[in-house]
Amino acid sequence: QVQVLESGGGLVQPGGSLRLSCAASGSIRDIDTVGWYRQAPGKQREWVASIASVGSTNYADSVKGRFTISGDNALNTVYLQMNRLRPEETAVYYCNVKGRRRWTGNSFGSWGQGNQVTVSS
Questions:
Q1: Average confidence (pLDDT) over 54-60
Q2: Are 96 and 80 contacting, i.e. CB atoms less than 8 angstroms apart?
Q3: Pair 46, 38: CB distance under 8 Å
Q4: Which residues, in sequence order, are CB contacts of 54 under 8 Å at separation 6+?
Q5: What pLDDT, on a 0 to 100 scale, did the predictor assign at position 46?
């Protein structure tokens, strides 16, 4: 009963910018962390950035200074602003949401369906 929907992917030129959105809904008591991951063909899924409910953020070294993760207080909607994109960052980008279910308090982890980002001239 937890749904994660992603949007904002598409085609962008090298050096350009794109903003991805991650929206979580369903039987959620609270969301603890939201992370963005990406996977290029033939490569492992790679962690990109995370945000916690307390507001702290963390980034992979490869995107520091170029990407920004943000969200509302409840993290129901989280964004990944990507600047100065590089061709090698062409990948399917995924959102992962971790938290606790509303009635039981049980923890959950849910993935979005993925969004294609293509960086090409």
A1: 96
A2: no
A3: yes
A4: none
A5: 98
Average pLDDT in the chain: 97
pLDDT at residue 1 tops 90: no
How many Å apart are CA 36 and CA 49, to the nearest integer?
Answer: 5
Q: Is there a contact between 95 and 78 (Cβ–Cβ < 8 Å)?
A: yes
Hey, what amino acid is at 86?
Answer: R
Q: Which two tokens stand for residue 52?
A: 């916690």
Strand partners, 117: 10, 91
- Residue position matching structure tokens 């507001």: 55
Q: Specify the amino acid at residue 38.
A: R
**Conformation bin of residue 76: beta by default, left when phi > 0, alpha when psi is -120 to 50:** alpha
Token couple for 106: 């049980």
Tens of pLDDT, residue by residue over 14-27, are 999 999 999 999 99
